[in-house]
Design a protein that fits this description.
The protein is mainly alpha-helical. It is built from 27 helices and six strands.
Length: 588
């Protein structure tokens, strides 16, 4: 097993390179930006449909009003995604362009929207007026939206980089000059989409969006099979196991299928048919990732209530609340699970077992697949029952999944617990308590300026070496005034883990009367926020983006740093240490 882990770990640089790919990142970030649309529209979908399960039907006027809000939000999902993907792709392109010659992302977004509409919609004429055919403006048009965004970004970069623009005299205000600067790339984009649409329709007799669906449908069908599901979610867990955020690599390739299949399931259910799609957003959120990637919900309860090791119990108590809401980084890095050979098998295969159980219930027992979208932070068992529309079989399936996950994790948990107990037995309880007290005292004195500077610095450096992390050396010159008025932004992949450190910093600063402003956000949504912060901290699962973040920070003159796993968890659990870390980074 150790050799297998070593082989996988050698591929980490390659996995990191994939995660940093600007096309995949643009899809991921663009898709994350439209998640509020999906969740908001699903509220109306739930209110309109779920009562039908118990035989209650809304009056026609109320029912139509509910579905109107759903159709006018979810129904234009692809339009919004074309814009958001174009924006994030333009941000990525701008990293390679001079500061004084950047792509105007707003113009890029507008061009992508128009280009997408040309490729995906027909004109519908009536006696009174004309409008758009909306068939491919929602989830079915997501692939075309991504293509429109990338083509737009590439064309804009070609012209902006070479200064092929309409140049205005220096006396013209910058906002007016920018408008003329965008005319050529904008016009070329629209012309390219327009001509391509005419040629494509003449050749095939239907729009490009329909053609894209026909080409990719076999792949979607294959991905919904047992082997396809195992490959997708086994890879997602495998990437996470070596410390690379798996969803950032896997999800962009299946994002369109996840949402489209949810929409198809709902349409089938409303038509009285079997909602048979397994590969859906709800299945990924609440079945595959029950408790986070690796299906760690049952494991954290084992740590908390069944472990004999004091360390494991402490980790379980600290991680149980975040894991219940699908933020399992405290468990992954503190246990640790990442690169821990003991947990390799259940971490990779529990998600596969979960999705296979769901597929068996759908294929052989007639249960409908996920139809309703809920926020990914909803606890897995609740999200499963609600996402499946309170079907009786959903309760049975949920119980079976929890039992299977327990069976898969338990022997490996016991082995690790025995290993930790043996390690703890080598140190007396008195020594352990004394060391913990000494460590806490040193860290507290380091920040408050009450301890001897040299001994504190040496102790902090020694602790950092033990944690395999960069040393955070604090001296008695560290004072509250160093952090007063400073602003710190913490970034992770989805905005959940980053909140752990941001909240720890805010709480510690408030307790000490320090005016320190903190915020947590998902990487990809940070570009427009950077000028408002002095320091940006990357959580471990987003550490592979450090090179790109450094380019972004250089443009606005602020600082950035990436944390390792165990270091990040320690900082999020120790207010003094987190404040000392921020002070040390800002002083560089």
């Amino acid at each position: 097993m150790e050799q297998l882990i070593a082989i996988i770990e050698k591929g980490q640089p390659f996995f990191n390179a994939i995660a940093r790919n600007k096309y995949l990142k643009a899809i991921r970030d663009g898709f994350i930006s439209v998640i509020p649309i999906i969740i908001f529209s699903s509220i109306f979908c739930l209110v309109a449909s779920v009562p039908n399960i118990w035989g209650f039907y809304w009056p026609d006027d109320i029912n139509n009003a509910l579905w109107k809000c759903y159709n006018y939000s979810m129904g234009i999902l692809a339009i919004a995604c074309a814009a958001t993907t174009a924006k994030h792709f333009a941000d990525a392109q701008n990293r390679d362009l001079p500061k004084n010659n950047q792509i105007n992302f707003i113009s890029c977004m507008c061009a992508a929207i128009i280009g997408f509409l040309l490729l995906s919609s027909d004109t519908v004429a009536t006696d009174a007026a004309s409008g758009f055919n909306t068939t491919y403006l929602g989830s079915k048009g997501l692939l075309t939206a991504f293509i429109a965004a990338f083509v737009t970004g590439i064309i804009y970069k070609f012209f902006i980089k070479r200064n092929i623009t309409v140049k205005m005299p220096e006396q013209v205000p910058p906002n007016i000059s920018q408008t003329f600067k965008d005319i050529i790339p904008f016009s070329v984009c629209i012309t390219v989409f327009w001509v391509f649409d005419i040629v494509f329709r003449a050749a095939f007799g239907f729009c490009f969006a329909q053609g894209v669906i026909q080409v990719f449908q076999p792949l979607f069908t294959a991905a919904d099979g047992y082997i396809g599901l195992a490959v997708i979610y086994g890879a997602m867990s495998l990437f996470w196991f070596v410390g690379v955020h798996g969803p950032s690599i896997v999800e962009p390739a299946i994002a369109a299928a996840l949402v489209a299949n949810m929409t198809d399931n709902l349409a089938a259910f409303q038509a009285g048919q079997h909602a048979s799609a397994v590969l859906t957003q709800g299945a990924q959120y609440f079945v595959v990732c029950m408790g986070g990637t690796g299906a760690t919900l049952v494991l954290v309860f084992m740590f908390c209530f069944l472990a004999k090791s004091q360390e494991m119990r402490a980790v379980g108590k600290a991680a149980i609340v975040p894991v219940c809401f699908a933020v399992n980084e405290p468990l992954l890095f503190a246990a640790p699970i990442v690169l821990n050979p003991v947990f390799f098998v259940p971490f990779v295969f529990a998600p596969i077992a979960n999705i296979w159980i769901l597929k068996i219930f759908i294929d052989f027992l007639g249960m409908n697949g996920f139809m309703y979208t809920l926020p990914w932070t909803v606890p897995g068992p609740i999200g499963t029952i609600m996402g499946l529309g309170f079907q009786p079989l959903a309760f049975v399936m949920l119980a079976l999944i929890l039992v299977v996950d327990f069976v898969l994790y338990y022997p490996f948990f016991r082995a690790y617990d025995a290993q930790k107990c043996a390690e703890e037995a080598e140190i007396s309880q008195e020594e352990l308590a004394a060391k913990n007290a000494e460590k806490a005292a040193k860290l507290n004195d380091a920040f408050q300026g009450k301890a001897d500077a040299k001994s504190v610095a040496a102790g902090a450096a020694a602790e950092a070496v033990k944690a395999d992390a960069p040393a955070v050396v604090a001296t008695e010159t560290t004072a509250a005034s160093d952090l007063n008025g400073k602003r710190v932004l913490v970034l992770c992949q989805g905005g959940g883990t980053s909140g752990l450190l941001a909240n720890a910093l805010a709480k510690a600063a408030k307790e000490r009367g320090i005016n320190l402003e903190t915020a947590a956000e998902a990487y990809g949504n940070h570009v427009d926020m950077l000028p408002d912060f002095d320091l940006v901290v990357l959580a471990p699962q987003a550490a592979s983006y450090l090179a790109d973040l450094q380019k972004d920070c250089e443009r606005v003159g602020n600082k950035c740093v990436a944390c390792r796993g165990k270091q990040y968890i320690e900082l999020s659990q120790n207010g003094d240490k987190s404040l000392a870390f921020v002070s040390e980074q800002l002083s560089k």
